Backbone:
């Protein structure tokens, strides 16, 4: 007989196992954390456990460099980067230092992840750090490769503020229909409301009525830059998950929403139904698809490395490197070339990426205008949320280090042209 609780009855253990699987999928197979979560949480029935698993993995990635520094300071011999004990210790420390889990509960759940492994080592390292009362810095430390890349890109002055913007998960931004009623919050632009995190989205006032949808403030800017539609035709290229499609429809455009993923477009249709908005849904690859007629406006929110979303997806900092950036830049150039050919003379084209890499933003805009027969249509300060300004070229560059005093925003690049 033993009085030890069976592992399947230890509260929180399924969440820790799922979080460990998520970290492995991201770091070993290069999956996004969101995609990894779907597979890792199979069999985790309790919604609270699923949420805990995602939070643990997310905080471990947000503070990965600093957690590793603590682990390395407490071990006589360095643990391999891919050692299971290191991964488990990352989760144990994230639970204690970021989610306020009591040390005894961290030990009870964490060591079970190392059955048959170096439990004594993990127990000793964690206990030593807990007794020392170690803390994390106020700002997460960025990976060396990211600091080096962004220092070249931005001259070194932006890496610090961007890191500061990653210190806490972002608030909840809503885009509100012109006639919609949203929960009370802070508005940083017309049709925008910002709320504190914590409440279930489906339970907020106006959700069931289709009055609004979730969309980061920066992500909402590109569609705003096309103005009101007045019934004119607009193509939303790479439309899923649909935030910009709904913005354009709410602004009076006749929207064609194009995306290569039927599954992702089904979510767009669900959101259109909920909000009472309309768009023509088209499943097709923009590299091979061709429209029957030209458009008055086109919004190309292109596939990208998504490094600008690092405050809500910190795993991106540990997955993306030069090869991924180059591959995305090549795809973006091809999509820009095709989109420009689908535009009526005098029509507007807005190009956007949620990337902090100049190769995907500024470098694309620098060649596209003259090469594709497009005339720059500079973005104006009065078109942007308060506190944001266009670049001297008339483009927009945002990053997570901006507007921190009001909750920050994602990193985006946006450029606009008119077809000559």
Residues:
């Amino acid at each position: 007989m033993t009085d030890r609780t069976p592992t399947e009855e230890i509260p929180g253990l399924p969440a820790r196992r799922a979080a460990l699987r998520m970290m492995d999928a991201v770091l070993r197979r290069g999956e996004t954390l969101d995609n990894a979560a779907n597979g890792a949480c199979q069999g985790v029935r309790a919604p609270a456990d699923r949420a805990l698993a995602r939070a643990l993995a997310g905080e471990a990635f947000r503070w990965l460099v600093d957690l590793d520094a603590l682990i390395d300071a407490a071990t006589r011999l360095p643990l391999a980067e891919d050692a299971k004990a290191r991964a488990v210790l990352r989760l144990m420390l994230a639970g204690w230092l970021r989610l306020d889990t009591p040390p005894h509960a961290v030990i009870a759940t964490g060591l079970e992840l190392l059955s048959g492994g170096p439990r004594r080592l993990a127990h000793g390292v964690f206990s030593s750090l807990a007794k020392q009362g170690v803390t994390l810095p106020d700002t997460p430390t960025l990976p060396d490769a990211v600091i080096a890349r962004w220092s070249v890109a931005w001259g070194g002055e932006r890496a610090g503020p961007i890191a500061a913007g990653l210190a806490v998960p972002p608030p909840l931004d809503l885009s509100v229909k012109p006639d919609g009623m949203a929960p009370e919050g802070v508005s940083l632009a017309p049709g925008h409301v910002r709320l504190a995190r914590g409440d279930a989205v489906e339970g907020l006032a106006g959700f069931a009525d289709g009055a609004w949808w979730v969309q980061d403030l920066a992500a909402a800017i590109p569609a705003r830059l096309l103005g009101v539609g007045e019934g004119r035709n607009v193509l939303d290229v790479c439309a899923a998950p649909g935030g910009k499609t709904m913005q354009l429809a709410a602004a009076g455009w006749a929207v064609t929403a194009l995306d290569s993923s039927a599954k992702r477009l089904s979510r767009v249709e669900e959101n259109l139904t909920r909000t009472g908005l309309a768009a023509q849904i088209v499943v097709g690859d923009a590299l091979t698809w061709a429209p029957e007629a030209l458009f008055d406006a086109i919004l190309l929110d292109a596939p990208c490395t998504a490094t600008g979303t690092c405050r809500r997806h910190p795993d991106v900092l540990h997955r993306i490197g030069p090869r991924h950036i180059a591959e995305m830049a090549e795809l973006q150039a091809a999509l820009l070339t095709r989109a420009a050919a689908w535009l009526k003379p005098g029509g507007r084209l807005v190009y956007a990426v949620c990337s902090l890499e100049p190769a995907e933003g500024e470098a694309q805009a620098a060649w596209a205008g003259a090469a594709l027969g497009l005339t720059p249509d500079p973005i104006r300060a009065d078109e942007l949320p308060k506190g944001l300004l266009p670049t001297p070229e008339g483009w927009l560059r945002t990053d997570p280090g901006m507007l921190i005093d009001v909750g920050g925003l994602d990193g985006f690049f946006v450029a606009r042209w008119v077809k000559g």
Remarks:
- Confidence is low (pLDDT under 50) at residues 1-6.
- The chain has two domains: 7-132, 172-419.
